[in-house]
Amino acid sequence: MGAGKTTIGRILARKLGLRFVDSDHEIEARTGATIPWIFEIEGEASFRRREAEVIRDLSAQEGIVMATGGGAILNADSRAYLKERGTVVYLRASVSNILARTSHDKNRPLLQTADPRRKLEELTSQREPHYMEVADIVIDTGRPNVQSMVQTILMQLASLECE
Ligand code: SKM
Fold it and tell me: Which ipTM was obtained for this model?
């Protein structure tokens, strides 16, 4: 969450000549509701089911770069779709960086708490093993230059193809 998936994903897609899709946007398009609304009315478990359906459908397509929500890897089906059908890039961000990027963003229902830093620390320790389980490439974000992060991803993708 807040690691820059959408920004980096869009640039990466352009460089690779692929289409960029975002599972959060697709959930909102399918339901006609915002993500905070889905969390509030249906709860997180229902959101994760919707998210897994969207990831199932999008990951069946060829020629895309997909950004997923940061918690998508909590669902075993979503993890399996990503791992089996795609090359997964984990953008690893520090809690401080995520906090700086999300502090004014009301679109992050999980962070609307009295202590978002603590919440992010919890989420990170819960999620990190799952990210590492599915990732083919791990990129530490926080570098100011987005273009150089994209270049690093492109180089690592190319070396995976040579394996
Ligand atoms: O998918 C959304 C939603 O707010 C949940 C989330 C998360 O669990 O990290 C991240 C967002 O992209």
Answer: 0.97
